[in-house]
Amino acid sequence: MVRVNPVVRSAVVVVALLLSPPARVADASPDAAGRQLYLRYCSACHGESANGEGVVSGLMTPKPADLTQLAKRAGGTFPSAAVTATIDGRGTLRAHGDPDMPVWGEILSKEEGPALDKETRTRTKLMQITAYLESIQAK
Question: How remote is the C-alpha of 44 from its chain's centroid?
Fold first, then answer.
C-alpha cells in the first residue's frame, strides 16, 4: 500500500478543483425548477407549451387539458390547491378503471433525492410544477 502525504493529497484535490470546469448552475427560481419538472413529467401529454398538444395527446381520450387556461376556467383566479391535488393524485378516489393521469404523487415519492423526507420532497416538486403552471397562465 502506498502512503500519500496528507499535504500532497490536499494539494492535489485543490488543484483538481481549480482546474475542473465550473459547474453549470441551473436557474434556481421556482418557475425554472417547475418548468424542468413539467417538461419531464407532463409535456408528453400536455405539450411543451402546456396547450394540451403533447406528442401522445392524439392517442388519448379524453384529450389532455390546456393547462394555460386553468385560471380562466376558474373565473380568473389560479386554483393552486386544486391543481396541486390533481397533479398529486393520491387523494383522488379511483374506484374503477385507469385514472386520466398518472398518480404523480406516488411516482415522485419513489424517486431518490436530497436528504429530505420523501413527503417533503414530493410536496416540493408538486408545488414547483404548480408554480410553473401559474406562471404560464393565458392573460
Answer: 13
C-alpha 16 chain-centroid distance? 33
Q: Which residue has the higher pLDDT, 125 or 117?
A: 125
pLDDT of amino acid 117: 86
pLDDT at 47: 97
Quick check: 102 and 88 in contact, CB under 8 A? Answer: no
Is residue 19 classed exposed, middle or buried when 0-12, 13-18 and 19+ CB atoms within 10 A define those classes? exposed
User: DSSP characters for 60-115?
Assistant: -SSPPP-GGGHHHHTTTS--HHHHHHHHH-TTS---SS--SS--HHHHHHTS--SS
At 114, give phi and psi (nearest 5°): -60, 165
Query: Contact, 44 vs 55, CB < 8 A?
Result: yes
- Could you tell me the pLDDT band of residue 84, with boundaries at 50, 70 and 90? very high
